[in-house]
């Protein structure tokens, strides 16, 4: 199996892991279990755009055997296909906040920035309040994108391997070093390089026409089985 195929498989696993982490980290904010907490943007988005799903989540949360990570991951995973079909502008909204979070983490802790670039928000428990606000916003915009994907679906045909190739070409054309642009590199990047690769990936995508950027971002961030 090629390195690129292994990376594609890894992307799917990481996408599901990130959903579980987001659910565990954010779902409790402003929920019925803690009515004094200020509602997160994620909770507000679910309540607004998927009210029946929110009611179901609240009912299930009364079952002590069902934790927030499971509920959050189940809800967001069920919406992956809808996110992948969201209009370009909804995907770009997610990308912009993703870029803002990466830059915030870079300024605060390069190691956290590198981890986010490589694995998603696996270290969210160590994020600053400012970074957590942005992570919450990413989750909320993902929910909004899912709603738009259901209401006005935009079919996409690009797969992760095509996305890798197109992204690498765009990064090289932008002047990013070949080492950072190679999405299937065999020699691991160091911490600073990994962080910068993530920053440059988002910057490159935001410089592309929205349709191209959205197609690549969806293929890499929301890969389908």
Q: How would you summarize what this structure contains?
A:
The chain has twelve helices and no strands.
> What is the H/E order?
HHHHHHHHHHHH
Number of discrete helical segments: 12
Uncertain parts: 1-17, 30-34
Decide which structural class fits the backbone: mainly alpha
β-strand amount: under 5%
Helix content: over 70%
Computed over alpha carbons, the radius of gyration is 17 Å
Mass-distribution shape: globular
What is the number of E strands?
0
Average predicted local confidence, pLDDT: 81
Major pleated sheet: none
Distance between the termini: 17 Å
Task: Give your account of this protein's structure.
The protein is mainly α. Helix content is 72%, strand content 0%. It has 12 helices and no strands. The protein has helices at residues 3-26, 41-49, 51-61, 68-78, 80-84, 88-108, 110-119, 129-151, 160-174, 178-181, 191-207, 210-221. The longest helix is centred in the N-terminal third of the chain and has 24 residues, at 3-26. Mean pLDDT is 81; it is low at 1-17 and 30-34.
């Amino acid at each position: 199996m090629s390195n690129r195929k292994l990376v594609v498989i890894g992307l799917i696993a990481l996408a599901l892991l990130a959903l579980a982490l987001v659910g565990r980290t954010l779902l409790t904010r402003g929920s019925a279990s803690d009515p004094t907490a200020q509602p997160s943007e994620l909770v507000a988005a679910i309540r607004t755009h998927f009210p029946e799903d929110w009611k179901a989540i609240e009912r299930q949360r009364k079952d002590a055997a069902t934790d927030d990570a499971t509920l959050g991951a189940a809800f967001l995973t069920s919406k992956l296909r809808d996110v992948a079909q969201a209009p370009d502008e909804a995907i770009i909204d997610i990308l912009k906040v993703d870029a803002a979070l990466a830059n915030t983490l870079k300024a605060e802790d390069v190691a956290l920035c590198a981890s986010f670039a490589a694995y998603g928000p696996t270290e969210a428990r160590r994020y600053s309040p400012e970074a957590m606000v942005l992570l919450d916003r990413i989750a909320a915009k993902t929910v909004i994108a899912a709603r738009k994907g259901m209401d006005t679906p935009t079919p996409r045909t690009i797969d992760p391997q095509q996305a890798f190739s197109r992204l690498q070409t765009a990064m090289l054309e932008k002047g990013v070093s070949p080492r950072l642009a190679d999405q299937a590199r065999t020699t691991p990047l160091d911490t600073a390089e990994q962080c910068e690769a993530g920053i440059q990936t988002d910057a490159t995508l935001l410089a592309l026409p929205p349709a191209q950027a959205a197609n690549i971002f969806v293929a890499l961030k929301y890969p389908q089985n």
